[in-house]
Write a structure and sequence with these properties.
The protein is α+β, with helices and mostly antiparallel strands and 342 residues long. It is built from 10 helices and 15 strands. The protein binds 1,4-dihydronicotinamide adenine dinucleotide and magnesium ion (MG).
Length: 342
């Protein structure tokens, strides 16, 4: 455990002190409880974050502990419910940030779910589905609320020990749950997913699932199987979904993705052997897949507004905040960047 008195915080960078402060809050329940007193809370209802509209923009409001206690009292709720909150980050000045869901059934409060509409009126905002909310927010808030929702969802779904069947207990920060009877520790999980933009040197391969919004095409994605390396997962997914063999691949970047459950999206560029570009779409996984020219993709990126695209019937690409968008943009800017052997 990092103790403030032990470390000379002044010698460390802001980022390092922040990281160590968050580490301390995860490890030490008393320190975390203390941090709640000066902290800020983001509110959710059944996993939908609270947003407020100011002028033309939405923002995610923060509430102090005092405001939260008043709110809960007003709705006849025990302040014990605040113990369900999870730590999601802190400011550079070490103001800790928490998230609390007022709609999910609470293990520490009897009168579980609070009425959504009454809360919205009281809070002068609305609980918006996260997929919609992400389009309305700046990058920092979008990322914070994604983390918050992922953590809240994980706690909601892991309230019992899978060995003893007993209720598990969350630590103050929400970084783990412990079974009191056998001491098994459960940590929040995310599934590794590979997302690959395949190129044949001049064109790139885009595909769509029937569940995608109308007209949207993206790179190939798939969950890693147990025991697989990243490289093996890319090769298998490309073979499974479009019947092609990857020749070379290059890691690009990664992203936490909260839908439908937490995934760690690992994005790669890949090439296939020239002359072996005939696609055989696996219709159990995909609705359609095809090769798109550099010009077509560059044009789609420039006019990437889903609403006008849907009306025109032309294809469109995932929004900026999705790593698929970044992967496609990278390829458009540098079409020959797939250099590492698979
Ligand atoms: N952030 C981004 O840019 C993008 C994110 N994605 C995400 O990637 C994820 C994976 O893509 P898919 O093509 O759907 O995967 P996929 O090609 O592996 O097919 C999904 C199927 O895999 C099986 N599966 C294996 N392990 C699973 C697990 N841990 N959780 C759920 N299903 C599992 C299920 O049968 C499921 O129906 C999606 O959930 C999607 O949200 C997809 C494209 C872009
Ligand atoms: Mg897939």
């Amino acid at each position: 455990m990092w103790r403030k008195s032990f470390w000379s915080y002044r010698l460390l960078s802001t980022y390092v002190t922040k990281s160590r402060y968050l580490f301390e809050l995860k490890e030490d329940d008393d320190a975390c409880k203390k941090a709640q007193q000066t902290g800020a809370f983001y509110l959710f209802h059944s996993l939908a974050p609270l947003l407020q509209k100011s002028e033309h923009q939405y923002q995610a409001p923060q509430h102090s502990l005092l405001e939260l206690e008043r709110l809960l009292a007003k709705f006849g709720q025990d302040t014990q419910r605040i113990e369900d909150s999870v730590l999601i980050g802190c400011s550079e000045q070490h103001e800790a940030w928490f998230a609390l869901d007022l709609g999910l059934n609470s293990s520490s409060s009897i009168n579980a779910s609070l009425q959504k509409q009454e809360m919205e009126t009281e809070l002068k905002g609305s609980f918006m589905e996260l997929r919609k909310a992400l389009f309305q927010l700046n990058t920092k808030d979008a990322s914070l609320l994604s983390t918050a929702q992922a953590l809240l969802r994980w706690h909601d779904g892991h309230q019992f020990c899978s060995r003893s069947g007993q209720p598990t207990k969350k630590n103050m920060a929400g970084s783990k749950r412990v079974c009191p009877s056998n001491k098994i520790i459960y940590y929040p999980q995310m599934a590794p997913v590979v997302i690959t933009l395949v190129s044949d040197g001049t064109r790139c391969l885009l595909a769509r699932q029937s569940s995608f919004p109308k007209g949207m095409y993206s790179a190939l994605a798939g969950f890693c199987d147990i025991g697989e390396s990243l490289e093996e997962a890319v090769r298998r997914e490309v073979a499974e979904e479009v019947g092609l063999e990857v020749e070379r691949l290059q890691y690009s970047a990664s992203q936490h993705w909260p839908f439908p459950n937490s995934s760690l999206m690992i994005a790669c560029h890949a090439t296939v052997k020239s002359g072996q570009t005939e696609i055989q779409v696996n219709l159990r996984e995909l609705e359609a897949a095809g090769w798109f020219s550099h010009d077509e993709v560059a044009t789609a990126l420039r006019r990437n507004n889903p609403y006008t695209q849907q009306q025109n019937g032309t294809f469109w690409l995932p929004p900026k905040l999705a790593i698929a968008h970044q992967l496609i943009k990278e390829w458009v800017e540098k079409p020959n960047c797939s250099t590492l052997p698979a």
